[in-house]
Amino acid sequence: MASAEIAAEHERILREIESTDTNCIGPTLRSVYDGQEHGLFMDKLEGRIRNHDREIEKMCNHHFQGFVDSITELLKVRGEAQKLKGQVTETNQKLQSDGKELLKSMDELRQCRLQQRNIATTIDKLTHCLPVLEMYSRLQEQMRAKRYYPALCTLEQLEQSCLPRAGGYRFCAIMAENIPVLRTHIRDVSMSDLKDFLESIRKHSDKIGETAMKQAQVQSSRDSDITHQQRTGSGKRLRREVGSGTMVESSGGSPNSEQDSGILDVEDEEDDEVPGAHDLVDFSPVYRCLHIYTVLGSRDTFESYYRKQRRKQARLVLQPHSNMHETLEGYRRYFNQIVGFFVVEDHILHTTQGLVNRAYVEELWEVALSKTIAALRTHSSYCTDPDLILDLKNLIVLFADTLQGYGFPVNQLFDMLLEMRDQYGEILLKKWNLSFRQIIDQDNYSPIPVSTEEEYRRISGQFPFQDPELEKMSFPKKLPFSEFVPKVYSQLKEFIYACLKYSEDLHLSSTEIDDMIRKSTNLLLTRTLSHCLQYAIKKKNVGLAELVQIIINTTHLEMSCHYLEEFISNITNVPPDGVNATKLYGTSTFKDARHSAEEEIYTNLNLKIDQFLQLADYDWMAAQGGGQASDYLSDLIAFLCSTFSVFTHLPGKVAQTACMSACKHLSTSLLQLLLEADVRQVSMGALQQFNVDVKECERFARAGPVPGFQGDTLLLAFIDLRQLLDLFTQWDWSTYLADYGRPTCKYLRVNPHTALALLEKISRAMKDTSRKNNMFAQFRKNERDKQKLIDTVVKQLRNLIAAHQS
């Protein structure tokens, strides 16, 4: 059983060896060697090999005859083949010999065709490359000539059309690589030109503005001449019509312009006609840079940069110098720079599309206007010279008219000028205050002597004075007023002219100008001149003669006020009797000054009287009075007489009031002198001397030092003193005590308090034994009786006072 399986296994292995590729026989043989029947297998294998050898031998024997036949046939064919080979070799030799010339010709033809093809290719490539080279050469020339915008156009054409047709040559690649560099270079160079332009116009903006303002001034002068010719006497100032402000584009404004300078040289003094501001500026750098950035696709970047730089320049331009207010040139340079800045912006607005727009320019102008007005308000507030303020006003008007001609709103500037009018008025008031003070200090307070007709006419021309009686008098003669009057009147007219000068060119109506002048003149009259007159009246060492002359002067100035009204109406062409016309307050001003002078006269007279009374030296214990008035009183009466003689030119009421006031004050002062607390004792002799002095005063009053008093009106000033002295000198106490309180009382003006005080002083004098000597001893009894009488009267007076108090 086991041998059969081994035999079957060996059979299988042999079949597998026969049918399997020799590369895969290893595992099969390994299975043989792994087994124990290696010898058996080898025997089996030997037997199989012998079987196969027998089969091969059988097969060879079966096909051997055919193989022999084939070899025989092959040997026959070899001979024929050798013959054929010889024929082919011979034919080949003949063919090679005959084809050498043909090959040579064909090779020459091939070379010729190759050259023709290369030439055609070269011509075709050169046809595409030469324009590239020519264009690149032109580009280099344009770059060297700084013609950057044409260079940029050439560069764009080179990149978009020429280089793609030329092909991928190395020089084309180099050119293509260099194109961005050239673009960057052109952009940087154009930006550098723009920066130079911006710096140049910043430095020359004052020159641009100066030229623009000159041009506006010339145009304004022409308009004024035309208006003056067309004016029919209405006097109303016409407002100049302002153009649209669109500037004509200069020849350098083309983007192809190759001039790079920002400012053109123009000699003003060589040309009679003032050049336009745009003629001074070459805007080609701006246009060129704008076109370049537009082509490069960076227009927004350029617009943003340009506006940003111009805003910075605007801030610099609008920053005034700290000492601008010192001179007019400082203001002029400031205005020139602002005008130059906005002239440039206006030209850019109208000659470019979108670089700046109206909203941007208007925003800049609003900022500039507010800062300019603030700067002017600040710096003009430092100014104290009215001439400088007036020149500044004219400069601001020219500044406003210039910018208005370019379409900028300037109403706020004119509003500010109206505000400055108040400041100008205040400065004028200060200046005229000094002028009035100088006139007052230099005046001699004497009537003006006139020797000839020419002098009289000259003064009449300065001051509207008419006096038919004075005109009939022969020369020499005197005008009633002093030099103060014509000088003050002339100064008033000069002030009105100064106010009128400021109102010119402010585009105000005649009514507004008239109202402004009248209000300013009223301030001058009611404040400045009034204070100066008060200064003249109240200053130290002013005499009564000076006060009298001041009253005369103010009277004539008051009468001249309606002439001032007519003067203002003539220069403004506004009737003074209009509904809204402001009236001058000159009449009230001069009336107030005259009243103040009158009061000062009264006060000075009283002070003079007090000074004389201080010289009074009464011997209150004198035994008897003298027969003549005291020396101080005689001097006082002489002074009053000479003083009242000066009052002849004063209005009657003034002189009468002054005289009455002086007499009342003298009466009151004499009574106070008699009743002084320091005077403890008064003798009857002293009282008699006092009575003599009062009689002298009454004689003065009765003589009528000032005409116009009716009867003995002036004597009433001394009625209190007279009744008191009569009471004591006549010793009429019974009548006084009996009739006291009745309207018909003889001593109605005697106050019981006054009577009691004087009676006590007399009583004390009589009781003073130091004044008595032995030689009057026989009279002692009489004096004792009189003393008793005095004591009785004193007692009765006290009872009378007590009864009235209860």
Automatic annotation (TrEMBL):
Spans through the membrane: none
Chain intervals with Polar residues compositional bias: 247-260
One GO BP: intracellular protein transport
Keywords linked to the UniProt accession: Exocytosis, Transport
Any Pfam family: Sec15_C
Domain (Exocyst complex subunit EXOC6/Sec15 C-terminal): residue spans on this chain: 412-761
GO (cellular component) term, any one: exocyst
Exocyst complex component EXOC6/Sec15 N-terminal domain span: 44-213
Segments of this protein annotated with the region Disordered: 212-262
Family (UniProt): Belongs to the SEC15 family.
Role played: Component of the exocyst complex involved in the docking of exocytic vesicles with fusion sites on the plasma membrane.
Name of the molecule in the record: Exocyst complex component
